[in-house]
Specification:
Elements (H helix, E strand, L loop, with lengths): L14 E4 L4 H12 L4 E4 L11 H9 L3 H9 L4 E4 L12 H21 L3 E7 L8 E2 L10 H20 L11 E6 L1 E3 L4 H10 L5 E3 L8 E3 H13 L7 E3 L7 H9 L4 E3 L1 H17 L5 H12 L2 E2 L3 H5 L7 H11 L2
């Protein structure tokens, strides 16, 4: 990891990545270092909030002491990437989760504006659109769990701040605050990926017939590349951007992860199992929503509308099949 040197003539980092030691953040830092960029990884401040809507979160951020301290840390940087957050999709809501996923993006955006940062990229999640058959870059959200609701609010606070800034001068210009909706991101050492490999290698590996549905399962390599390219893009970037599809079907993902063809199940059976599972999970305070959603994606997949990445020509080299195969080989 690169960091500023000491002394009055220290070289300021061009990039700052909050949450740079995490799964996504460390991959972004590695991508930047491969390009020879000067990057500093920062731990995000631990925030807590009992707010339940975007307006309350924005008001809370405006009075947070973390804004000034972050603005000082951002001084001289061109790009700030927020890869921090609380990624616990299977757990219930908490003030810590709201602080990490809902309040923090607003605090960082205010600090970035104060510091004169060129572009702020926030890592959101496609889960904010819930069970929609086709995910896209629209402002339509349908969160289905505590985690996805806080991530949705993280997007909404940035929209509110952008609206407030639209008629002002200075700060981050429109097109320079971007939320990237990451899809189902996998990496060779990620516990979620290892769990997928174990399922795909077992008799549980199954899809809804005929097994050709597209899946949003994607690679950390492609996401890191796309985040950096989006930040560097010379023109305006839409406020909501969807991570590009890497081209695999539900059957192809399980074959790459498990080395075997999955069983094909009838649609009526899968719908019945999922309906029962979600009902039980709601009775338990949504505790099982995360695992059930992973099964739903394994069976049905989820389509993606082509978005800004395709129109801008920012399509990463697909790497998900290789990542899953490497994860499978590492568990032998």
């Amino acid at each position: 990891m690169s960091a500023p040197s000491d002394g009055p003539h220290r070289k300021l980092p061009r990039w700052i990545v909050l949450g740079g030691s995490g799964f996504v953040g460390s991959a972004i830092v590695a991508e930047l270092l491969r390009r020879g960029e000067h990057v500093m990884s920062m731990a995000a401040p631990r925030l807590s909030s009992d707010a339940s809507n975007a307006a309350a979160l924005v008001a809370e951020a405006a009075h947070s002491t973390a804004v000034d301290s972050l603005a000082e840390a951002f001084s001289g940087a061109e790009f700030v990437i927020n890869a921090a957050g609380l990624a616990t999709p299977g757990e219930g809501g908490s003030p810590a989760m709201m602080g990490a996923n809902g309040l923090l993006p607003a605090v960082i955006a205010l600090a970035a504006r104060q510091a004169g940062v060129r572009r702020f990229v926030h890592l959101s999640s496609a889960s904010v659109q819930g069970h929609r058959r086709m995910i896209d870059e629209s402002g339509q959200r349908a969160p289905f769990s505590a985690y996805s609701r806080t991530k949705a609010l993280g997007e909404e606070v940035l929209e509110l701040l952008a609206t407030a800034e639209a008629g002002s001068t200075g700060g981050l210009a429109p097109g320079n605050v971007v939320s990237i909706r990451a899809t189902s991101v996998q990496g060779t050492s990620r516990p979620t990926t290892r769990s997928l490999v174990k399922v795909a290698s077992s008799a549980l590996a199954s899809v809804v017939a005929p097994g050709t549905a597209p899946t949003p399962v994607s690679s950390i390599d492609a996401l890191a590349w796309f985040v950096v390219q989006s930040a560097l893009f010379t023109g305006p970037v839409p406020p909501l951007v969807l991570q590009p599809w890497e081209g695999l079907s539900v059957s192809e993902v399980l074959r790459a992860a498990g080395g075997r063809a999955p069983v094909r199940l009838p649609q009526w059976f899968c719908h019945g199992v999922l309906s029962t599972g979600y009902f039980i999970s709601r009775m338990l305070g949504e505790r099982l929503h995360g695992p059930i959603r992973r099964v739903e994606l394994m069976w049905f997949g989820q389509g993606q509308e082509p978005g800004w990445a395709e129109s801008a020509g920012l399509i990463p080299t697909p790497a998900i099949a290789h990542v899953l195969e490497q994860a499978r080989l590492s568990l032998r």
